[in-house]
Design a protein that fits this description.
Elements (H helix, E strand, L loop, with lengths): L5 E4 L6 E3 L19 E8 L9 E9 L8 E7 L8 E7 L9 E6 L5 E5 L2 E5 L2 E2 L3 E2 L4 E10 L2 E11 L4 E8 L10 E8 L3 H5 L6
Parallel strand pairs: 7-14
Antiparallel strand pairs: 1-2, 1-3, 3-4, 5-6, 7-10, 7-11, 8-9, 8-12, 12-13, 14-15
């Protein structure tokens, strides 16, 4: 389920800004400068007789970023132990050092220990983020699954395209249907601008 109507407090805590989430793509890039933690909240209408535009802000999660900051991809997980809506937020290093262009990595949130092949290379995926795997060319193949009671169950098998000017993260989640071996798998791509495009970009005065 795609998240919606989520905001975060700006660094000076004087106001907030909305966030946009996509189910199969990266969100826009947000810049934050201010105090830890970054606080996320849901905004709901709470009109009064005096002011029909009043809204209620309910905190749903927070995350602290180590000094001096950096580039992170925040992954929201529902907190199943909380009585009210709440999220555990994982900060994944999204810098070019952690995930260079022309490579792919995985985030395994399925609770299964996965094994498979990326092109001709054997891969093993534990829980959480994997290392970055460099790719050659643009056309690739991926297969992975898990072993249960002595049998290998395929969870995902598909070709994909990712060229040297792009990088990708495969997000692996539990199946739609409980007990199924087929895991939800989405590729989040990030493609840098071409040199031609960069030449047309100029800083503003």
């Amino acid at each position: 389920m795609r998240l919606s109507d989520i905001h975060y407090f700006l660094g000076d805590r004087t106001g907030g800004a909305p966030l946009t989430f996509y189910s199969s793509d990266r969100s826009p890039v947000y810049t934050y400068e201010g105090l830890n933690p970054i606080v996320f909240y849901r905004e709901t209408p709470a009109p009064t007789d005096l002011d029909p535009n009043v809204v209620k802000r309910t905190k749903i999660g927070e995350i602290s970023i180590p000094h001096p900051g950096g580039e992170y991809l925040f992954i929201f997980f529902p907190n199943l132990n909380a009585e009210n809506e709440s999220y555990i937020i994982y900060p994944m290093d999204d810098s070019a050092n952690a995930l260079p262009f022309g490579s792919v990595r995985f985030f395994n949130a399925s609770s299964q220990q996965l094994v498979g092949k990326l092109d001709k290379d054997r891969i093993t995926l534990g829980n959480g983020p994997s290392k970055a795997y460099p790719l050659s060319g643009s056309n690739h193949s991926l297969t992975f699954g898990f072993e249960h009671e002595g049998k290998y169950h395929i969870s995902y098998q598909s070709p994909f395209q990712l060229g040297p000017r792009s990088r990708g993260i495969f997000m692996i989640s539990p199946p739609f249907i409980k007990g199924s071996a087929l895991l939800q798998t989405r590729l989040l791509r990030d493609t840098r601008l071409s040199e031609e495009t960069n030449q047309n970009v100029r800083p503003s005065d």
